[in-house]
């Protein structure tokens, strides 16, 4: 890796921190290389590299952020590249921080929204980082509740020119009325009950689009809404109760932005949205929703093959709410753990979690108060979870039974979930030797996937096709491939 020409000034800040951390030059280089591997980087630093940094050379690319992260882990406090006397660069863990305060959380997530809504395509190429799951989930579990989220109105002063400004800079206010024009929202404006109702409606709209057509159809519109409408609300004025509800809505919409990012395979970006949704849920004082965000993170980890991390996230979610959550939420948490054990091939643990999930749903009663975000989890969804688990455990007869039940019960509006379940059923039929049925089901799913903007839908179909390889010369498989080719 090439370095910039050496500066003449020795880096005393870096030298002091190396001494504080007790690193040798070789030890620091080794840790930087190891952290680079976590991010898919093949670095080859050694003690000579560190000697050059101490003499004033500046490492290039993301290396300053990696060095800062090494010291952060060692010393237990957040350090930036500048703290080490190194040039600033985009932090490797940018967006994965679990903010110390609600204000800091708004700054972090607002930065993500602004970058994502622009032309920053590189943001959608950030890699998923398993190591980035540990600290946020731990901080959520053991962190103290936020005592205050309310924001008082910032006094507006009128300069000689008559244009209202606040300490944050110019605000688009009407000087004669001292209020924002009805068509615009500026920082400092009061958040109303109507604003909160609008946020809920926006969430329902984008969730429906995601379920029917995939995350890629309206994701960018959602992110722009978050930037242009939600962030000014979070920087507005509100009392304690309104503030908690506002942060709850922000958590929900940020999780949804992560979910749609996950669906288009922008996994690193999705991970960052999930972490920030978790922090916003803490500001809302909503432990149950925080557990739902952790379950979402667990599902992404399962999809990416990180089963052990997925189990840990599901268990942290369970610990975080204890037995206080409604039965449907308990069902959701146990089902997530089951999926993680299933992808690891842990039959006994998977079965035990499925049993707990089933019992929890049986305990639900009509009239129970269920959070709006958990109402999707019903018998159809539980049957879907069973089907996936039995598929992963290669218990194909049970997988087929549960997948058929889920498809029978599942409403058509959940088009993508039905597609996933149809592929699970096709895979089960293939495992049972029923090649004709398997190919017919998969062809239907492939046709539906072609109508969606969902990388996950396409990957489900590809996974089935990989399983077809041993039968590639069979007539049903040739027919399947002809149908898929006709889709273009």
Written overview of the protein:
With 488 residues, this protein is an all-alpha fold. Among the domains are: 12-84; 97-152 and 185-285, no CATH class; 409-488. It has helices spanning 12-21, 25-38, 47-55, 63-75, 102-117, 134-142, 193-213, 219-234, 240-263, 267-284, 287-303, 307-321, 327-343, 347-362, 379-392, 396-409, 415-431, 435-450, 455-467, 475-486; strands spanning 165-166, 169-170. Strands 1-2 form a two-stranded antiparallel ribbon. Helix 13 (327-343) runs antiparallel to helix 14, helix 13 runs parallel beside helix 15 (379-392) and helix 17 (415-431) packs parallel to helix 19. Mean pLDDT is 89; it is low at 156-183.
């Amino acid at each position: 890796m090439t370095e910039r020409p050496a500066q003449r000034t020795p880096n005393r800040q870096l030298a002091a921190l190396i001494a504080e951390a007790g690193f040798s030059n070789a030890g620091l280089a080794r840790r930087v290389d190891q952290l680079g591997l976590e991010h898919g980087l093949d670095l080859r630093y050694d003690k000579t590299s560190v000697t050059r940094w101490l003499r004033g050379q500046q490492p290039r690319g993301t290396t300053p952020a990696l060095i800062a992260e090494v010291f952060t882990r060692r010393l237990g406090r957040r350090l930036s590249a500048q703290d080490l006397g190194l040039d600033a660069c985009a932090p490797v863990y940018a967006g994965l921080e679990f903010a110390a305060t609600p204000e800091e959380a708004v700054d972090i997530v607002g930065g993500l929204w602004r970058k994502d809504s622009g032309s920053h395509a590189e943001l959608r190429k950030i890699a998923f980082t398993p190591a980035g799951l540990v600290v946020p989930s731990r901080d959520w579990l053991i962190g103290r509740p936020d005592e205050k989220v309310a924001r008082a109105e910032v006094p507006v002063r009128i300069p000689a020119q008559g244009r209202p400004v606040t300490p944050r800079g110019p605000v688009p206010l009407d000087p004669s009325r001292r209020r924002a024009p009805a068509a615009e929202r500026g920082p400092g404006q009061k958040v109303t009950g109507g604003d909160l109702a609008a946020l809920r409606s926006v969430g329902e709209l984008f969730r429906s689009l995601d379920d029917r057509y995939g995350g890629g159809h309206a994701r960018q519109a959602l992110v722009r809404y978050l930037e242009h409408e939600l962030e000014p609300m979070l920087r507005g004025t509100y009392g304690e109760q309104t503030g908690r509800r506002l942060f709850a809505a922000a958590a929900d919409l940020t999780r949804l932005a992560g979910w749609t990012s996950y669906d288009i395979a922008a996994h690193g970006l999705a991970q960052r949205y999930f972490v920030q949704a978790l922090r916003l849920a803490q500001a809302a004082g909503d432990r149950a929703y925080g557990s739902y965000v952790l379950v979402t993170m667990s599902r992404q980890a399962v999809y990416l093959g990180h089963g052990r991390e997925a189990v840990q996230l599901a268990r942290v979610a369970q610990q975080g709410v204890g037995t206080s959550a409604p039965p449907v939420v308990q069902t959701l948490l146990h089902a997530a753990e089951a999926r993680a054990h299933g992808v690891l091939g842990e039959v006994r643990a998977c079965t035990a979690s499925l049993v707990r999930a089933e019992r929890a749903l049986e305990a639900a009663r009509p009239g129970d108060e269920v959070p709006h975000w958990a109402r999707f989890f019903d018998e159809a969804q539980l049957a879907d979870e069973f089907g996936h688990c039995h598929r992963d455990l290669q218990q194909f007869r049970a997988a087929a039974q549960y997948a058929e039940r889920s498809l029978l019960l599942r409403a058509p509006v959940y088009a993508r979930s039905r597609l996933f379940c149809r592929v699970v059923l096709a895979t089960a039929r293939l495992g049972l030797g029923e090649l004709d049925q398997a190919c017919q089901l998969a062809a239907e799913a492939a046709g539906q996937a072609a109508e969606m903007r969902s990388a996950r839908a396409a990957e489900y179909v590809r996974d089935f096709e990989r399983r077809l390889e041993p039968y590639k010369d069979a007539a049903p498989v040739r027919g399947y491939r002809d149908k898929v080719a006709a889709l273009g």
